[in-house]
From TrEMBL:
This is Ectoine hydroxylase-related dioxygenase (Phytanoyl-CoA dioxygenase family). The keyword Oxidoreductase applies. One of its GO terms (molecular function) is iron ion binding. InterPro entries: Phytyl_CoA_dOase-like. It comes from Thermocatellispora tengchongensis. The lineage of its organism: Bacteria, Bacillati, Actinomycetota, Actinomycetes, Streptosporangiales.
Length: 253
């Protein structure tokens, strides 16, 4: 990977609301992740509505099912960006997403919209998308409204300047939770696979309850930083304690 600094990513995020960094994963890492995530998705149901995608499959509880995203979730560039933007944070909704052939475009939305905060507000959500296939306009690459992270309560209308975030497999796309975006339509005859790591400020409730989703005996063997990201941590001064103690003390010996 060509060296990319935290400052460079932050500058682009501040201007556009998203930043693409290529070659974050090697071809071998992409192939292994595609095979494993694809296999885990094979039995997953498709979405229940148009927003989830009636031809889209999602893999939840990723860290209970594979170790192949432990590294990407704690990549130094990722954590460097998050440290500057969110300071204290945890994984909220890491999800494998396979957009199937014939899927329609998802409605544009900001991912921090699930929290009842007036816009604009300081960033509370940052996402990192990891494409395991080349993302193209034809197969459902994410659609983005650049600069919309600076909006107040406006919504993108028919003439909004939407761009398609095309990128090769192995890239990583950082984007702010306040940015309006949505999955694209897949007009090809093959599915499009990616994994999104959704991080939120540690004082917000996680979308997925990892303390229940990932068995404690699995968490016990994970790197300490990943344990913290899954929720075994304290948001200063004392949010998240268990019986007055650090939550990591609850893990089995």
């Amino acid at each position: 990977m060509t060296a990319v600094s935290v400052d460079a990513v932050l500058d682009t995020l501040g201007r556009d609301g998203y930043a693409i960094v290529q070659d974050m994963l090697s071809p071998a890492e992409v192939a292994a992740a595609r095979a494993e995530i694809g296999g885990l998705l094979a039995g997953a149901p498709t979405g229940r509505n148009a927003f989830e995608g009636l031809r889209t499959r999602r893999l939840y509880a990723i860290f209970a099912k594979t170790r192949l995203f432990d590294g990407p979730a704690t990549h130094p560039l990722v954590l460097g960006v998050l440290d500057r933007l969110l300071r204290h944070y945890h994984l909220s909704a890491p999800t494998g997403i396979e957009i199937g052939p014939g899927e329609e475009a998802q409605a544009l939305h900001p991912d921090d919209g699930i929290y009842p905060l007036p816009r604009p507000h300081p960033e509370v959500v940052v996402n990192v998308m990891w494409p395991l296939d080349d993302f193209t306009a034809a197969n459902g690459a994410t659609r983005i409204v650049p600069g919309s992270h600076r909006w107040g309560e406006e919504r993108p209308g028919p003439g909004a300047p939407v761009v398609v975030a095309e990128m090769p497999a192995g890239s990583a796309m950082f984007f702010l939770g306040s940015l309006w975006h949505g999955g694209g339509a897949n007009t090809t005859d093959r599915p499009r696979l990616g994994v999104i790591m959704h991080y939120a400020a540690a004082w917000l409730r996680q979308q997925e309850s990892h303390l229940l989703a990932v068995p404690p005996e699995v968490v016990r063997g994970l790197p300490e930083r990943l344990q913290e990201l899954l929720g075994y941590n304290i948001c200063p001064p004392f949010i998240g304690y268990v019986d007055g103690r650090h939550p990591r003390r609850t893990l089995p010996a």
